Amino acid sequence: MKPALCLLALATLAAPALAAPTVSRLTPPSELFASGRPEPVIARFLPGQRFDLQATVRPDAGQKIVAARFMIDGRPLAQPVALRDCASGCTKGLAAETAIASVRAVSVQAAGRHEFSVEATQADGQLVTARGNFDVVPFTAALGPKVKNIIILLGDGMGASQRTAARIVHGYAQGKAMQPLAMDSFAATGLVKTASLNSIVTDSSPGMTSYVSGNKNNNNEEGVFPDDTVDAFDNPRIEYLSEYLHRTQGKQLGIVTTADVFDATPAGNAVHTSNRGAGTGIVDQFLDDRGHTGLAVLMGGGRKWFLPAGTPGSARTDSSDYAFSATDPHTAEIVRRWGVAPGRLDKGRDLIGDFQQAGFQYAATKTDLDRADAGKPLLGLFAFSNMNVALDKINGRRGTDRNGLGGASVVDDFGLPDQPMLDEMAAKALDVLKRSPKGFVLMVEGASIDKQAHAMDTERWMLDTLEFDRAVRVAQDFAAERGDTLVIVTADHECSGAALIGGSVVTDARLAELAGSKGVANLRNSVVGTYEKAGFPHYRIAADGYPESTDIDYRLLVGYGANADRYEDWRTKKTPQRDVQQPFANQTPLKWYPANAMERDDTLGDFMVTGQVPGEQAVHTGTDVPLSAYGPGALAFTGVIDNTDVFFKLAQAAVKGVVAPAETTGALKPARPKR
Prior knowledge:
ten-stranded mixed β-sheet, alpha/beta, five-stranded mixed β-sheet, 20 helices
């Protein structure tokens, strides 16, 4: 090498290297950005459906990002880019100079594959770019009429085993179901893949939002894509089905649940947050953004979030609320571009009173519900947190106490003896919503199928599945009478890995005796009948539609494949587990309820079932779940589909009308693989 070239090479090696700024997150999520592969396409939208673009940009040390712009298909967006740094709070590991660039409420009308990109400029002039992609799914020319109304019945945690168990309780004779479930009579059934954006095992938040946004969310997040800020309410948003159809057609929204209304499934139809536990802000959004969702019915538990702080039972806090700053462009653009309320830290808010001021009538009991005027919007809050489950509500109505000794019932212990059943709530919701001239979207959730499966409380989730199916019948009858309503029944995920392993080979009296004898030899080997020994359990169904007793001779036996440690004696638990979400859970008599399955069962038969998972509860599983559909467009819901496909099928039926099943996949045709 010549001396001059040698000196130049040495000088180059000695000079400090300039590290380029980097884009560490680009939203909407895409494999094109994450791996460089154009497929599978992760984010999909309807024509005109609104969503946010966002990028996290890390500058060189000592530098800052001074400008950014977004482009779609090579064309810069006209909307302003909100740029903020991480000095005001980002996730761990991000330097204060890291920039978050956002464009809010973007929409694209043209169907097809689209590439988007961000270009960020550092103070020293260096540029960094990154690109991703998304699909806009086209509407298809219709062969039939548009549907006016959509009813989504969501059995939380309800897999095939939970559905089958409820059918068995209704009765079998020589291998034939004596009284099929309402959901069994639907015209079409398929299987749904349930994975979330960040796991093969979803939780209820993205499990619900996938059906009503067309996109995957992270676990614990609702109606948003993940970001790098610590604010639970400023994430990039995705327009919900309720928002889209209210904005474009004027449809109203109804939400009915047996859970606390702030819970993941009800909130996942109208609320945008990365923290499913931020109860104060979640319930405030229900009211404050009703002009965007068309909310006309909200029923369930959750009164604690609506009472001013300081009121007995209130759970309102400023730490679980939100307020978008008008001086921070990152959040101010949410208010300006989406047109939503700015929020306020107002733990002293009387939210029930504010609902009433907005024209809603309020029901706190079944008696109130029965008297409610169907011509007005309706708020029903029948418990401080989650409502009691069907088994305990039915026992309360029958006057059956929890111990069989003439004492109080479970609903008496909760101080809530007058709670409606889910089918009664669904019927009232339909009575209100059917007056909407443009139609409606109604979500009805049987929440404690999941909650009691977590607790491995077999009889309670079985009866909650029966209660849910009675609500399915209400929706089916409504749709059958009108002919303009599409109904789907599905689950967000399966819970507990429930397995119908057989039937007891002994009477209930003998089962109680064997529990006293204790151990595997007595409670497993002498009780569990498999194959032909299982026979057909015979539950006597009372006039109210529920078993006269769940402690029958030769009962159905259920095991769990995703369970925590527990003791099993196969008999109905006298009380549910303590619900820590209840504000009075630590007061008498609720404080005497068992805290977990081990505490509940450890004095019984000493038949220990070792769990496959750590902790105190059974967990969700990643298995596919059934979906059944009824009404115009039902035949589109067949085969094995992704949970996000459901959104596009529902929208197709409402916006353009019913099409042939093969044309409603909600996906663009992928390129044929090369051989």
